[in-house]
Amino acid sequence: MELKLYVDRMSQPSRAILIFCKANGIEFEEVKILLAKRQHHSPEFAEVNPMKQVPAIVHGDFKLFESHAILIYLASAFPGVADHWYPADVRKRAKIHSVLDWHHSNLRRGAVGYIFNDSIAIALGLPLNPKAAAEGEKLLSASLAMIESYWLEGHGPFLLGNSEPSIADLSLVCEIMQLEVADENDRDRILGPHKRILKWIEDTKNATSPYFEEIHSIMSPVKEKLKELKVQASQQSA
Amino acid sequence: MELKLYVDRLSQPSRAILIFCKANGIEFEEVKILIGKMQHRSPEFAEINPMKQLPAIVHGDFKLFESHAILIYLASAFSGVADHWYPTDIYKRAKVHSVLDWHHSNLRRGSVGYLFNTRIALAFGLPLDPKAAAEGEKLLSASLATIESYWLEKDEPFLLGNSQPSIADLALVCEIMQLEVADEEDRDRILGPHKRIMKWIDDTKNATAPYFDEIHSMLPLAKEKLKELKVQASKQ
Questions:
Q1: Å from B227 to nearest chain A CA?
Q2: Domain boundaries, chain A
Q3: Which of A87, A160, A165, A194 could form a disulfide with A92 if both were Cys (CB 3.0 to 4.6 A apart)?
Q4: pLDDT tens string A174-219
Q5: Does the pLDDT of residue A238 top 70, yes or no?
Q6: Residue B36: its pLDDT value, please?
């Protein structure tokens, strides 16, 4: 049964799914839906996902969107996937659900609020919004602090004290990696104080090497492009 | 093994969990944590949930928060729960996950944004924010439209074209029930156009009778209280 991933490597949850599949030897066809070219608004893609968002998958004739649902489905549908990604134990699984749920309104909301309004809006032809960016940064920083003080507590290097990564680690780390498109000074200001987070990102990268770096190799060129666009935009308003 | 639910019936996800347990004959102790009295900020409750939010559960020595995680856990841990609440079929289950995920940033975000900034902020001594309320209402209305056009199918009563309710129906319907604390005119303006939604709320209520009404019975009183606070605030 054919698996197609409709993704944009600029989308944090898209990257989580790509890395998950590669790290688990799941074969797929990557169908690039480029947000900057508004391809997510095409009528063809609306047939795949009427919410017009990436990522989305089609497996045989089964369509699915929302990255957490997709990660859980892939972990369950493919027999080769090791238990630590999405444990069968009902209690361990419940803890993974709880951090994935927390993510929506905390890390994701803060990170998107900050990075979109500080940088990415420009790539979509929209104005930057410093006030919304500041609000986003506040929530982002609070979320990073909560990850350090609560979610990363325990014996192991990964979320929930686990000794091996779960789908939650991939999901949240890919979100934080989006900061790579921001200005270095801003990234250092926000992320620099959080040494435990930096170590966790490193551990997640090593656990899914070389796919993590390969999937994230897009970040540098995107950052340069956004810098250019920002310069152009300020020249126009000057 | 003892199950304790730390809940406030004013909290939409708290209600979903209470109704789920009652409808499935799951025994529990209801520990009321009253948000209006800031009890969620007590050091004792922080031991239960360091996020200081409701609902949270303790089952034996197992602590858990986030209502979707709780609903899934309860459906999985208690053997008497019928399959339609959280199907074992991985395709059906994946669809339940997708609507629960969608809920966070759409229906919930819109509804909370609207109601907090038109009413509920007052219960915390915070000012109302008409601009944020308008943004919330816009997202709320868009979410209701998406539920009608996509998540609810024409021929079956429940989300995802299901003939029986899942945990997703409970979670989303309890969210929409929060509009009961708003002014009737506002509620009618927002909900009135959505006949399919109103039918779905009714079907969900009937599928979990009499618990749905029992758990929601405190909303009219909460509405009156919030109305009073608004009148007082405008006098000041």
A1: 28
A2: 3-81, 86-237
A3: A87
A4: 999 999 999 999 999 999 999 999 999 999 999 999 999 999 999 9
A5: no
A6: 87
Across B113-234, the runs of DSSP E, i.e. the strands, are none
Peptide bond before residue A210 is cis, with ω within 30 degrees of 0: yes
pTM of the predicted protein model: 0.97
Q: What is the pLDDT of residue B125?
A: 85
Q: What is the pLDDT of residue B190?
A: 97
Q: Specify whether domain A3-81 bears CATH 3.40.30.10.
A: yes
Judged by a CB distance cut-off of 8 A, whether residue A145 touches chain B is no
Q: Give which of A66, A72, A148, A160 to mutate to test B binding, by max B Cβ within 10 Å.
A: A66
Residues 66-105 on A with a CB inside 8 Å of B are 66-70, 72-73, 76-77, 90-91, 93-95, 97-98, 101-102, 104-105
CATH class of domain segment(s) A86-237: mainly alpha
Domains and their CATH numbers in chain B? 3-81 (3.40.30.10), 84-235 (1.20.1050.10)
Alpha carbon distance A77, B7 (integer Å): 35
Taking 70 as the pLDDT cut, the residues of chain B under it are none
